[in-house]
Design brief:
The chain is α+β, with helices and mostly antiparallel strands. It has 2 domains: about 100 residues, no CATH class; about 120 residues, FAS1 domain (Roll), CATH 2.30.180.10. Strands 2-1-7-6-5-4-3 form a 7-stranded mixed sheet. Strand 4 and strand 5 form a beta hairpin. Helix 1 packs across helix 3. The chain is elongated. The termini are far apart.
Length: about 240
């Protein structure tokens, strides 16, 4: 019983800290631990969130029934059953989501909402149809925040030079489905532009040239996306 009470207390503290961070800075600690973006969930995070909520119910139950051993055991038994139900529901939800038809690389990027600039540039360069083909392709995709690091003058110049824009965008594309398990074993990769990018692993981080992979293995029907925090500029 003491161990369960301690676990409930720890979960309440974690939950309070996490929700405080969400309220103050829109930073979800639990999602970050599982390598997800703010607002995203998977089976594991849903179980954690469920356990945090359940710990509050458990704590209230213990306070209400007092110290009666029989009643506390009933609360504990009910808690265990609810935890099991949460786990089953989370796994079922994930299985259902994975069974849905995946979109193409372009559709997946557009649906995420963080690649509006990339989608716009792909349209301008006439590469949307290319990345909707069966492939498979691997795309190192810069977020909107990554494009904000590029000087406006440089970006405007690219928009006016379709051939150069196409070359820059293809520098982010590698033929084949190269998942993170393969990426970490590479030192370079030849891109669809004909030029190669450098790949470097530093601890738990993977870098493509100077860009950091912030989220690997976003799966699409015709390949995989690795989210990066900088735009890759091909060598002259």
């Amino acid at each position: 019983m003491k161990a369960l009470n301690l676990l409930a207390a720890v979960l309440l503290i974690v939950g309070g800290l996490n929700w405080g961070l969400v309220a103050i800075g829109e930073f979800d600690l639990v999602a970050a631990i599982f390598g997800l973006d703010f607002g995203e969930t998977n089976a594991a995070t849903r179980v954690v969130y469920g356990l945090v909520g359940l710990s509050a119910v458990y704590a209230i139950g213990v306070l209400v029934v007092g110290r009666g051993a029989l009643e506390v055991r009933k609360v504990q038994t009910m808690s265990i059953l609810v935890v099991a139900a949460l786990g089953i529901a989370a796994v079922a939800s994930t299985a259902s989501a994975s069974s849905r038809k995946q979109g193409t690389i372009v559709e997946t990027a557009v649906a995420s909402g963080q690649f509006t600039t990339l989608a716009k540039l792909l349209t301008t360069a006439g590469l949307v149809k290319t990345l909707q083909r069966p492939g498979p392709y691997t795309v190192f995709a810069p977020t909107d925040a990554a494009f904000k690091r590029v000087p406006t003058k440089t970006l405007n110049a690219l928009m006016k030079d379709k051939a150069k824009l196409k070359s820059v965008l293809l520098y982010h594309v590698v033929a084949g489905k190269v998942t993170s398990a393969r990426v970490v074993n590479l030192t370079s990769a030849k891109t669809a532009s004909g030029k190669s990018v450098r790949i470097r692993v530093a601890g738990a981080n993977v870098f493509v040239n100077d860009a950091k992979v912030t989220k690997p293995d976003v799966m699409a029907s015709n390949g995989v996306i690795h989210v990066i925090n900088r735009v890759l500029i091909p060598p002259a």
